[in-house]
Each structure stands twice: as C-alpha cells, then as structure tokens.
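Complex 252.
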Amino acid sequence: MRRTIIITGATGKFGKILVRNFLIHGDVVIAIGRSKKKLNELKTLTNKKHNKLFVINVDLMKEGAISRIIKLIKKLKLKPDSLINNARNLDYLQLDQKNKTSSKNFLNEFKLGVVIPYQLVMAMTKSFLGKFKNVVNIGSIYGTVAPNKKLYKNLDAESSIQYGVTKSALEHLTKELAVRLAKNSVRVNCAAFGGVEGRVNKTFKKRYADLCPSGRMLSENEIFGPIDMLISEKTSGVTGHILMIDGGWTIW
Ligand SMILES: NC(=O)c1ccc[n+]([C@@H]2O[C@H](COP(=O)([O-])OP(=O)(O)OC[C@H]3O[C@@H](n4cnc5c(N)ncnc54)[C@H](OP(=O)(O)O)[C@@H]3O)[C@@H](O)[C@H]2O)c1
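Predicted structure with NAP bound:
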C-alpha cells in the first residue's frame, strides 16, 4: 500500500537515503528542509518517472514553523500517515575553547532534537486524526550509553554532552508519546543508530571497529530497512520501542 511519509532533515545524510528509498518503494514523500537548493536537488535522487515527492522549505527552529507545515500539507491535499523525526544541526554540537557547551547550544540542540519532534507529532495527530499512524524518532547509541573514551583521542573536545542528553530525552519522549497517543492509534518508535561510515577518518574507523561487536561501523545501506520496518504493518504491534541498529555497540 502506498504510504505518505513526512521526513524532517530530508536533505542530510540519512534524509537523502530515506527519501530515495521511499520513493523507489512507491511511497509519497513530503521532504522538509531549510535549504531550497538542497530540497530541489532531492528531485534528482531517483529517475522514476512518477515520483511523488513534495518539498516544504521551512526552518523548524523558527516561530510558527509547525503550523506552516500543517497548512501547506493541507493545501497540497495530502494526508500523511507517517512522520520521521530526523533533523539535526551539527552547529549546535560546537564547543567553546575550553570544550564547554554554551547554554545556547544546549538549548538549541534540545529544541530541535526533542521539543520540535514533540510538537510535530502532536500537530500531525490532531490535524490528520484517523489517518496519521506512525512516528519514528531517529536516535543514537548515545541516547542509551555514554561515549566510550577509548573511541576518542580527546573525549571532551570531540564529543558534545548535549548530543547524548538530547537523544536520551528523545528515547523517553518516544515512550511517553507511545502511551499518550495509543488512544489515537498512533505508534511511536525510535530507531537508534550507531556510527555510520562516511564522515570519519581511517584511524577513528579502526578504533570504532575494535570497540564494536560487529567489528565495523554501519554502512549507509543499513539505514533504510529498520525505519521502513517500523512504519510497516508488519510491526503493527510494536510501539514505544527503542530499536538499536548498532552492530551490537550497546551490548558491551
Ligand atoms: N550520521 C550518523 O552517523 C548518525 C549516527 C547515529 C544517529 N544519527 C542521527 O540521524 C539523524 C540524521 O543524521 P545525519 O547525519 O543525516 O544529519 P545531517 O547530515 O547533518 O542532516 C541533518 C538535516 O537536518 C536539517 N536541519 C538542520 N536544522 C534544521 C532546521 N532548523 N530546520 C529544518 N531542517 C534542519 C539539515 O538541513 P541543512 O542541510 O540545511 O542544514 C539536514 O537536512 C540525526 O538525528 C542524527 O543524530 C546519525
């Protein structure tokens, strides 16, 4: 059955993979991003003739962003059934010269990583009641475990505390919303990923491999499957679940 799926952060690493795969699968995709140029580039991701890709150019951190999204979706006469909360901003992970996190970055990371997902889920549920059924929050191993200092040359300089704290809150948000929205037949799950190869250098990759049961980082083609599964009818009995996709990182 063709689904209508909203993806935030659709122009980033995970986002592009999700948009492409859902379109190939024949789903309708509503891609949310803050760069018009990057959103237009998404249109070249598949060569399928009858792509059902709609783009919404909005900065989620701006006042009124969520009501704008709802208004535009209604104007397009679309009725979304699934939402993937995936956006993040690497700028909010910046540290100062003493490797400290500013209040501003901490609060921005929490707002984009937890508050906006919460508000989006609530707005979708209310606006598309009966049709809207699934939420997948994109989490991380760092929502469950703290960073292993053996992975970093200098943990304090390379790993920001606000990332894991926010992802941990996102896991709890998943459980809270699963309980609170069950009456609306909305399932809420979290797909928590380990490190995906691509952005790190060889020595980091080697250290990661040595610390991970699977002996490697995740590859990009391991991103889509678990998310697709969580919004599929095959997992209709699953809600409030934190699915670790981490090659076993959180076992140890
Ligand atoms: N990459 C990994 O190895 C990894 C591992 C575990 C978990 N994750 C999680 O997976 C998710 C996706 O990660 P990623 O690596 O794909 O991130 P990414 O490449 O940095 O992409 C982030 C996306 O969010 C968008 N965004 C940022 N701020 C926004 C705003 N205010 N309004 C609207 N859109 C905004 C970005 O748009 P712009 O391009 O315009 O900035 C971009 O499309 C994140 O939740 C991350 O924590 C990633």
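The chain has one domain: 4-251.
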